[in-house]
Amino acid sequence: MRSKQNLHLPVETNSYILFRKPSGLRPGVFYFKGLVTLLLFFIISVIGAQPRMEIPETKKSFGTVVKGELVKLEYELYNRGNAPLIINEAEVSCSCTRVDFSKEPILPGQQVKIVVSFDTKTVYERQDRVVYLHSNDPKSPGKIRYKGFVKRK
After folding, report:
1. Inter-residue contact 65 to 152 (CB < 8 Å)
2. How much is the pTM?
3. Strand 142-151, strand 59-66: pairing
4. What's the angle, vertex CA 77, arms to CA 73 and CA 80, rounded to 5?
5. CA–CA separation, 87 vs 9, rounded Å?
6. From the CB of residue 85, how many other CB atoms can be counted at a distance below 10 Å?
7. Strands, E assignment, the chain
8. How far apart are CA 66 and CA 69, in angstroms?
9. Most C-beta atoms within 10 A of its C-beta, which of 46, 66, 91, 129?
C-alpha cells in the first residue's frame, strides 16, 4: 500500500513575485526604489489637486445712479477644482470700493457670493472699475468688473 504523500506543492503567487527581492539586488536598493516610487506617486497626486476659481458673470452694470448712493453688486464664485480655494485678498483701484468675501476655504464644487460695495459720494459721470481677487488658484488673480453712470445732484 502506498503511503500518503503531501501532494500540495508550494505555489508562487503574483503577490510573492511582486514583493520579493529581485535577484541580484541588495535588499536596500529594492526598498529604496519602492520608497522613491511611493514618493513620486504622492507628489503627482498633490500636484494634480488644485483649486480653480470660476466666476460665471464677471461684468456687471449698475445703470444710472445719483451721486451719494451706495451701489451693491453680488457676484457668484465657484470652486471648480479638486482642492480648497482660499481668497487671500481683493485688490481695488480706489477707496470708494469695498469687497466682502469669505475668509474660509471654499471646498471643491462649493459656491460663495462676493459682494462689491461702491460708494458714489466722491465720484461722478461714467465709472468703470475692476476688482482683482487674489487666491491660491494657479491662474490667480480672478477679475471682476462693474460699470455705470453717476449723475451729479
Report:
1. no
2. 0.68
3. parallel
4. 165
5. 64
6. 26
7. 53-54, 59-66, 70-79, 87-92, 97-100, 111-119, 125-135, 142-151
8. 6
9. 129
Q: Distance (Å, rounded) from C-alpha 4 to C-alpha 149?
A: 101
The SS3 of residue 82 is coil
Distance CA 54, CA 105 (A): 15
pLDDT tens by residue, the chain, 153 residues = 555 555 555 555 554 444 555 555 555 555 666 777 777 666 665 566 799 999 999 999 999 999 999 999 999 999 999 999 999 999 998 899 999 998 999 999 999 999 999 999 998 899 999 999 999 999 989 999 999 999 987
Grid cell in block for residue 121: 459720494
> Cis before residue 27, ω within 30 degrees of 0?
no
